């Protein structure tokens, strides 16, 4: 650290020089991120309420009330006004917290040995983190041709050590939705915990349904669903950090809390990972959800889907590249039978396009910052690159 401190103007100058290296959402070049520019209201509130700490909610009772109301709004979106949960640091924390509670509930039933959780091969890396931290074995189940987990394979994978099943509503690579209704039946029949990772899809699918898309019921309408991850800091236009973890009801939480006795605001018991955490992000999330409402989000999702269809059609017109599957939501996968996808990715990066690269596909997430003119330019660049590639 500098001995005598640096004047503010100098800091700002240095900062602007350094941050010039960052890509910006406004450039339209970021095509592979699940984050976007937060809503203006969220941005304003983040700066005003920066000091609010939900790690000590006794001091910030109003902020705590706002968190409860935020969870109620998300719960009603997921068709369960009784759900209970927390705004957490992101989908990773949400999934780890759910897996911990599933493990605690399940381990009393399996009587020794390593607990097993069945996940689709499409599951996010956060489940690997959860397994490593929690001493759980992951059992991976294959997907069908449309990249959804096969319920028959899930059933076959169940052993006397299985404690939970995970289904994904909006996979990281392609946005596909697992047959959650069938997973729910299996979970009920076998008395297993069912967690749904809707970190991305949770803020998309309910609005697609309102737009008339026919999609599987992914939420608490399924009796077997015990918890859902849903992240406002993805398609919710909330600021980072704003993930969400919701449980079917409060009983899942009550017996799985850590009690923190020393807090200035009085004892607080919670089941999440972080201690000190951002109250401002929760306030900003609450305000954004309230301000945009169902109609606002439906409009945003509709716009994203229009751009998604533009991209989908454009890819179909370029020789030697294909869609990995028909997009279910605003996520598009590009593959090629003839060309090297890694080489295409490298050429795109030279032009500053930033896509997501998975084993055999490139992923585009059509977030609200991705506009028709960006897609037009991208398609033109992709066509040029594929013409030159071998
Ligand atoms: C389906 C899914 N779950 C969980 C996560 C993790 O979310 P975060 O990066 O907010 O921790 C992601 C991130 O891309 C995701 O796609």
Considering the chains and any ligands shown, give keywords for the structure.
12 helices; binds pyridoxal-5'-phosphate; about 400 residues; 2 domains; Aspartate Aminotransferase, domain 1; alpha/beta; Aspartate Aminotransferase, domain 2
Describe the structure.
- There is one protein chain.
- By secondary structure, the chain is of the alpha/beta class.
- The chain folds into 2 domains: about 10-40 and about 300-390, Aspartate Aminotransferase, domain 1; about 40-290, Type I PLP-dependent aspartate aminotransferase-like (Major domain) (Aspartate Aminotransferase, domain 2).
- It contains 12 helices and 13 strands.
- The strands form 3 sheets. A 7-stranded mixed sheet has the order 1-7-6-5-4-2-3, with helices on both faces. A 4-stranded antiparallel sheet has the order 10-11-13-12.
- Strand 10 (about 320-325) and strand 11 (about 330-335) form a beta hairpin.
- Helix 2 runs antiparallel to helix 10 and helix 10 crosses helix 12 (about 370-390).
- The mean pLDDT is about 95.
- Bound molecules: pyridoxal-5'-phosphate (PLP).
CATH A-level architecture of the largest domain: 3-Layer(aba) Sandwich
Give the beta-strand count.
Answer: 13
- The arrangement of helices and strands along the chain is HHHEHEHEHEHEHEEHEEHEEHEEH
Please estimate the helix content.
40-55%
In CATH, the topology of the largest domain is named: Aspartate Aminotransferase, domain 2
Which regions have little confidence, pLDDT < 50, spanning 5+ residues?
none
Distance between the termini: 51 Å
> Which outline best applies?
globular
Rg over CA atoms, rounded to whole Å, is: 22 Å
